[in-house]
């Protein structure tokens, strides 16, 4: 029978709740939890080294298809800039809406002592904002919803440019300067605005195969160099050398661990889960972390 702590954590994981009440989950190992608590850092990994081979590319390719399918006059100029975007990157710390989920345990917490760390959504947003991160849900499949506003802005700016150009008196000696001035605003949007917006949108757009992961991401865009407040480091996994940034668990000038950041710890399926719950509760108490601890109810044998 689920414990009282389990029921509380489950209730706080309801997607319908507001940010102040809601918890999202990061499936990992007890060692990773210990590292976060002791070193006061979260690791945000370079997205090109995550498990989706089409990270960043999926959203860019969808936007490119939108441009190719339109007859709008400004599309060609934007398309000429699209290849530049494939070199852009971002760093992400991943969480999920899924509470005590078997596929998450098997996919991301196959360590000897698996845990899921419950983070308060409001605290993650505050933390992210302090270091230049956004915190948003991923969008899956061919949904173009995140791209529609950008596409509409491009069309509107191009139409405004064409209208303004049509009003120029060609007999006026200042006509060439007027035309250049009008085009400058649109060119700025194409060369600077589109890349900046796509860098923030693309890391949140993923292939439909990953839909069940129900992922929320803390995302820092722009690649290298990163925010000078953040430490860049590298770790080895298999034959890869993976870049990541260390994100402090507290905002500048505040507490070492943001209030409400660690809300709960769920101990994964294990024959010794009850003992791990007891040790984890004591460990958190000794480190001044106020979080509920409970045991997974999934009867999975590793």
Q: Which helices and strands occur, and which strands form pairs?
A:
Layout: H1 4-12, E1 23-29, H2 30-39, E2 41-46, H3 57-69, H4 75-85, E3 90-96, H5 102-108, E4 114-120, H6 121-130, E5 134-137, E6 139-140, H7 145-166, H8 175-201, E7 205-206, E8 215-221, E9 231-237, E10 240-248, E11 262-267, H9 273-286, E12 292-295
Parallel strand pairs: 6-7, 11-12
Antiparallel strand pairs: 1-4, 2-3, 2-10, 3-8, 4-11, 5-8, 9-10
Helix pairs in contact: 3-4, 4-8, 7-8
Structure description:
The protein is α+β, with helices and mostly antiparallel strands and 302 residues long. The protein has one domain (4-295). It has nine helices and twelve strands. The strands form three sheets. The protein has a six-stranded antiparallel β-sheet with strand order 5-8-3-2-10-9. Helix 3 runs antiparallel to helix 4 (75-85) and helix 4 packs across helix 8 (175-201). The two termini are 21 Å apart. The model has no long low-confidence stretch (mean pLDDT 88).
- The structure class reads alpha+beta
Secondary structure tally, helices: 9
Give, in spatial order, the strands making up the sheet with the most strands: 5-8-3-2-10-9
Cα-atom radius of gyration: 23 Å
Average the pLDDT over all residues and give the rounded result. Answer: 88
Number of domains: 1
Describe the largest sheet: 6 strands, antiparallel
Outline type: elongated
Order of helices and strands: HEHEHHEHEHEEHHEEEEEHE
Please give the number of β-strands.
Answer: 12
